[in-house]
Amino acid sequence: DFSSAAFFIGGACIVPDSEILIKNVCLNETRTGFLEVLKTMGATIEILNICEQAGEPVGDILVKTATELKATTVKGEIIPRLIDEFPILCVVATQAEGTTLIKDARDLRVKESDRIKVMTAELRKMGVPVKEFEDGVEIKGPCRLKSAEVYSYNDHRIAMALSIAGLIAEGETVIKDSDCVDISFPQFYNLLERLQR
């Protein structure tokens, strides 16, 4: 599932000396706006071994640490194609040079949590200069993240995004109610631990 893979894709872009190959990922273009945005920002991503399974395009995604991410503006028609990836996109934006603006994303206010409000509040705790708007956020980077006690608000995508942020934060980040990831990705923390070895 692309939405599950997105957290590891985003993490590999920003964690130093990373390289990850994620196999057999659904690449339906209605779901992969996050990849397009990352490439615009200068991420090092390759799509390999594309084939079709059950009528859907499937392939392997190779991601390496980006040497220099650039801020971008994300708005309009691409928003529905990355709506679930908003939390991890915010985390990646903290490491991009310049000001990243995400707008036209008002629907995020009524997901499992108000993701615009939550990501603004929790990233601020980690030292990120972020502004909240009615339909999105503005994030200035790159910035050095600091450890903090943050909250998932029982939103699985918030918990996973903050876990990736914790990988590049100084010190130990504690995520309250992190077990909510079991809703969509019960193996997430085991995989994350294995990837860090």
Structure commentary:
Helix 1 runs parallel beside helix 3 and helix 1 runs parallel beside helix 5. The chain is of the alpha/beta class and 197 residues long. The protein is globular. Helix content is 31%, strand content 25%. It has a four-stranded mixed beta sheet, with helices on one face. A three-stranded antiparallel beta sheet has the order 1-3-2. A two-stranded parallel ribbon has the order 8-9.
At a glance:
The protein is α/β, with parallel strands linked by helices and 197 residues long.
Features:
197 residues; alpha/beta; 4-stranded mixed β-sheet; 6 helices; 31% helix; 25% strand; globular
Number of strands: 9
Helix content: 25-40%
Anisotropy-based shape = globular
Spatial sequence of strands, sheet with the most strands: 4-5-7-6
Q: What pattern of helices and strands is seen along the backbone? A: HEHEEEHEHEEEHEH
What is the distance, rounded to the nearest whole angstrom, between the alpha carbons of the first and last residues?
24 Å
Show unreliable segments.
none
Residue fraction in strands: 25-35%
Rg over alpha carbons: 15 Å
Number of helices: 6
Structural class: alpha/beta
Largest sheet: 4 strands, mixed
- What number is the mean pLDDT? 96
**Oligomeric nature of the chains:** single chain
